[in-house]
């Protein structure tokens, strides 16, 4: 990292209003971005602003569903709770903004949502008020009518019996996926998908509203609406239509887009739109996540490379952990500041896996798959050094730089110092919540709808809760079960000797390892499907052989990073002697798993450890039944740093689930336990005192209290 820091340019690029970059330029572009007056950010407005232009006079058909599954037409005045779906017509360029969760199927024409052109298939769209509300826009261009499923075809037939003059026909279906009940686990997020209805939207809701989906005519202060500004649209259009570059052998080069910018500039939103455009063009796209704190597909604390083949129509917590990563590396922290070398090594490893996949696809004669790289928002000092290291490893063909026009300040990588990297630089105006026009994002509008402005730790909490409460139907459809606490779920029982315990840099005595791991969130590591060059490729029989008599010393060494300190089980058994009987000792490694031989699978909660029987009880998120279970490849768990060292921890909402949260309201420490007993003798040991692994007791003695660092903003009085 020191050598890289000495090579990088220290200049700060400042866009100038009078300089522009021609869209026809190719190669390395280091000019300033095109000036623009329209802000791309979702706006916060004091006065209600019209966002839905769909006219309530357009034809609408409300559809109900009987207990046997038969569809029938409902009366227009029927209660919304009785509706299974609504079918309505739209004219070109009509917009519809809504809050909630629903399935959308375009029966005729085309509708654009998240830059995905939906037509003919059911798409599940998530629109929480914590993020910019989703907007459906009817398109002027039409596609050939796609094949519809039986239910969509039946809905279109019910519509066509009385209406057929609209350019676009859309079906909106109510869903009950379980995520709308998130407030049961975390009451602070209860209003993400539901809210009060404004007076000017009542007629709209009565016309096309369905359970769980609330259309909005106008938005008030603090409510944001997803927009695609002009410069974003130009960059996305270029990704959709520009011919691919050719290499020296006249083979097309797979485009690699790296999206960079400071925090809050909309990198994740733009990356999501870019993925949808590339999926429509190429069918598949790799997504490399390099932001440890706010991942898109993987849980926080991991860098991942995910193969995406379906449009992404919601914020990250709506699809966290739903797709097994093609390859992933676990760090267990939300920032790379404490271990930048391993972070750079993880990025390099993911880039190598992608290039290996491209070469194998080319050898088979298949087209190469493009890749989108979402970078972290740390672009100063060490963060900029890591960005240079990322560009050196990934070698992007296109570098998308988001900048803030309010400050006219943007850091740009000097690609002249990055060997073998000469991308086309695209400038887009970033979206910053600090530049909101009007009231604060936390204000309540005239409709009484209160908007929650989520911080980074809120986003991580939502992702972890979504992962830990995830579920699947028998058909492989993603759902959530918010009604079953984690403490009530059946854990997976794994022998201690069948796991490698990677403790990272934690200096925990071997006798205390099981105690330190119990009740914590750990990373589950399995054998990699795509081993690196020269690495041993583990067969299914070899993996099964690991569990014959526990993970051997040789296997633990092969699965760990070089130089890791190990507590060999063979040495422990030798010290105990032959007369000691079976010794239930795990393979303890003070280090991290190998980046080439292993891959991160998911997070797991260590529910308990039964030392007598020698088993670890893990609460693991279920895997999709539609794919082969990767559980047979699991070889160990990783204990990351604690919260005081920016580690990933179990959300407190999950620990209080099961009735503890409601009973803990107003409960204080154990010093008032006697007073509560006098007031309510029958209600002893209530509230937070019952929650497992949770303590609010104040330890006495010098240095007895545990300290926890919080990365919050500095108070104004201290600035």
How many separate helices? 16
Quote the beta fraction: 15-25%
Gross geometry? globular
Tell me, rounded to a whole number, the average pLDDT: 79
Q: Termini separation (Å)?
A: 32 Å
Oligomer: single chain
Main beta-sheet annotation: 10 strands, antiparallel
- The percent range for helix content is 10-25%
Radius of gyration: 27 Å
Low-confidence parts lasting 5 or more residues at pLDDT below 50? 9-31, 35-45, 433-451, 664-687, 702-719
How many strands appear in the DSSP assignment? 29
Give a brief rundown of this model.
This protein has 719 residues and is α+β, with helices and mostly antiparallel strands. Helix 5 packs parallel to helix 6 and helix 7 runs parallel beside helix 8 (382-394).
Defining key terms:
16 helices, 719 residues, alpha+beta, 29 strands
Report on the structure:
Helices cover about 20% and strands about 20% of the residues. By secondary structure, it is of the alpha+beta class. Strands 2, 3, 4, 5, 6, 7, 8, 9, 10 and 11 form a 10-stranded antiparallel beta sheet that branches. It has an 8-stranded mixed beta sheet with strand order 22-28-27-24-29-23-26-25. A 7-stranded mixed beta sheet has the order 16-15-14-17-13-18-19, sandwiched between helices. A hairpin with a 2-residue loop joins strand 6 and strand 7 (about 115-120). Helix 5 (about 230-240) packs parallel to helix 6. The protein starts with a helix and ends in a 40-residue tail after the last helix. Mean pLDDT is about 80; it is low at about 10-30, about 35-45, about 435-450, about 665-685 and about 700-719.
